[in-house]
Amino acid sequence: MRILLFDALLLVTCAYALWRGGAPERIAAGAMALAYLATLASYGPLPSRFARVEIGVLVVDTLLLVVLVSVAAKADRAWPMALAALQLDSVGVHLARLLNLEMIRVTYALMLAMWSYPMLLVLVAGTWRHCQRRRRNGGDLAWSQKDIS
After folding, report:
1. How many CB atoms lie within 10 A of CB 32?
2. What's the gap between Cα 116 and its chain centre?
3. pLDDT band at 57, cuts 50/70/90?
4. What is the pLDDT of residue 148?
5. 42 Cβ contact partners less than 8 Å away, ≥ 6 residues apart
6. What is the 3-state secondary structure (H, E, C) of the chain?
């Protein structure tokens, strides 16, 4: 049931960001949805899942972190930095597992999953704020403008 709830929340959140968001929201939503699918395909076999570092999931999480940090560095928004920080926590969980080989499998799995829910909230809040700025100002600058002079 927990997995179905998360799947529904992810679908609704990403659809909302893709439908109503600006470029940063759409990129983050697409990257998160693709990362979720890639994560499902990257898990090890069920009997040994989470017994050691899930390398495939670590790679997916690291790639998502790179995308989110890139968006955060270029977007004219504050929320992408919070999203990138939450994703950094997910990558940190893998590193903690590498350093503590005695970590209980369930602890590793829960620590990986727990960051996903606040990430969805941040994306929804960022998309909602984008809509508010667009309604109030008639538009919303997506990317920071660099002074070229």
Report:
1. 22
2. 7
3. very high
4. 44
5. 54, 56, 57, 59, 60
6. CHHHHHHHHHHHHHHHHHHHCCHHHHHHHHHHHHHHHHHHHHCCCHHHCCCCCCHHHHHHHHHHHHHHHHHHHHECCCHHHHHHHHHHHHHHHHHHHHHCCCCCHHHHHHHHHHCHHHHHHHHHHHHHHHHHHHHHHCCCCCECCCCCC
Q: Are 46 and 82 in contact (CB under 8 A)?
A: no
Cα of 69 vs its chain's centroid, Å: 10
Tokens standing for residue 116: 């996903």
Tokens of 50: 């989470």
Query: Cα dist. 61→20, 53, 123 in Å?
Result: 25, 12, 17
